[in-house]
Design brief:
Layout (H helix, E strand, L loop, with lengths): L2 E4 L2 E6 L12 E5 L4 E4 L6 E6 L6 H13 L6 E7 L3 H11 L4 E4 L12 E2 L11 E5 L5 E6 L9 H11 L1
Parallel strand pairs: 5-6, 6-7
Antiparallel strand pairs: 1-2, 2-8, 3-4, 3-7, 5-9, 9-10
Length: about 170
């Protein structure tokens, strides 16, 4: 079980964070149009899985906007921002900010526990920690970034380098 911090206070995560080379766990999330989307496993494209606590926070908003901008020119990358926010809130968020990558919710199945990012205690219990996973076309974890402090943004340069290394 991994730990991160929220405002400097230790927070435990439920499940095990997969390591580079592990099979990417398969899970089902719900998109803003209320359709189920399978993440993980082998696909025809590289998957970029971005987990955030809630789109309705300044850091998550900034992160989602930044990835939306950075990934505009990437072809063959299936990017999904995943939180526990309801799909209706995700749709409103995407419409408000012109987000054109997938935004999804894990409220229905809580499958992100398989990725070890479900917060298990504290005031954010039940939400997702901030993390980025890259899954190669063969369904293997190619990159993991579990952001140590939930209120910090991920290292975007590292994520882009890892994506470029797969191309």
């Amino acid at each position: 079980m991994a730990n991160v911090t929220f405002d400097g206070n230790r927070v435990s995560l439920v499940g095990e964070v997969p390591k580079v080379g592990d099979d990417a766990p398969e899970a089902v999330v719900v998109t803003t149009d209320l359709k189920e989307k399978q993440i993980g496993g082998a696909k025809n494209s590289v998957q970029l899985l971005i987990t955030v606590p809630s789109l309705d926070t300044p850091v998550c908003e900034a992160e989602t906007k930044k990835f939306n901008e950075l990934l505009r020119d990437y072809k063959g990358v299936d990017a999904t921002v995943i939180s526990m926010d309801l799909p209706f809130a995700g749709k409103r968020f995407c419409d408000s900010f012109g987000i054109n990558m997938d935004v999804a919710s894990d409220y229905r199945y809580r499958g992100l526990e398989k990725y070890g990012v479900l917060i298990g205690d504290g005031i954010l219990k039940g939400l997702c920690a901030r993390a980025v996973f890259i899954v190669d076309k063969n369904g293997k974890i190619a990159y993991v970034q579990l952001v140590p402090e939930i209120t910090d943004e991920p290292n975007y340069d590292e994520v882009l380098k890892a994506l470029n290394d797969l191309s």
